[in-house]
């Protein structure tokens, strides 16, 4: 089973703007940018009915990026701590330098 692809609000707004600026059909624009034509038609409808509040979503891409960076920082910190402890363990060795 494949996961459902999610698009950012900015991507949706840009796609809707592309439809409005172009002289081609909504279907043609959707096929050119690689999304389902029905989905793009729905986005255009939502943008028309929602005004400036269309595609508000639950968070901004900046929030998503911040969350991803925090997860990466936590992972790197754990790796650093593990390597520091491992280096200290192996540095102990015997007093004459042999094991």
Explain what you see:
- The protein is mainly α and 99 residues long.
- It folds into 2 domains: 1-58, Winged helix-like DNA-binding domain superfamily/Winged helix DNA-binding domain (Arc Repressor Mutant, subunit A); 59-99.
- It is built from 4 helices and no strands.
- The protein is elongated and about 75 Å long.
- The mean pLDDT is 83.
Name the features.
99 residues, mainly alpha, Arc Repressor Mutant, subunit A, 2 domains, 4 helices
Fold blueprint:
Layout (H helix, E strand, L loop, with lengths): L8 H13 L4 H8 L3 H14 L10 H32 L7
Helix pairs in contact: 1-3, 2-3
By CATH, the topology of the largest domain is Arc Repressor Mutant, subunit A
Number of strands: 0
Indicate the proportion of strand residues.
under 5%
What is the CATH H-level superfamily of the largest domain?
Answer: Winged helix-like DNA-binding domain superfamily/Winged helix DNA-binding domain
Q: Enumerate the spans where pLDDT stays under 50 for 5 or more consecutive residues.
A: none
> Into which percent range does the helicity of residues fall?
55-70%
User: What overall form do the CA principal axes indicate?
Assistant: elongated
The overall number of domains is 2
Count up the helices.
Answer: 4
The CATH architecture name of the largest domain reads Orthogonal Bundle
Helix/strand structural class: mainly alpha
Sketch the topology as an H/E string, one letter per element. HHHH
Q: Write down the Rg.
A: 25 Å
Briefly say what this structure is:
With 99 residues, this protein is an all-alpha fold. Helix content is 68%, strand content 0%.
């Amino acid at each position: 089973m494949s996961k459902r692809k999610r698009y950012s609000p900015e991507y949706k707004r840009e796609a809707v703007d592309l439809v409005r600026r172009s002289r081609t059909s909504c279907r043609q624009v959707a096929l050119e940018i690689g999304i389902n034509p029905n989905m793009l038609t729905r986005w255009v409808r939502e943008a028309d009915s929602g005004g400036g509040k269309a595609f508000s979503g639950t968070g901004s891409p900046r929030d998503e990026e911040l969350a991803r960076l925090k997860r990466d920082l936590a992972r790197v910190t754990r790796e650093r701590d593990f390597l520091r402890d491992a280096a200290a363990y192996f540095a102990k060795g015997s007093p004459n330098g042999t094991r």
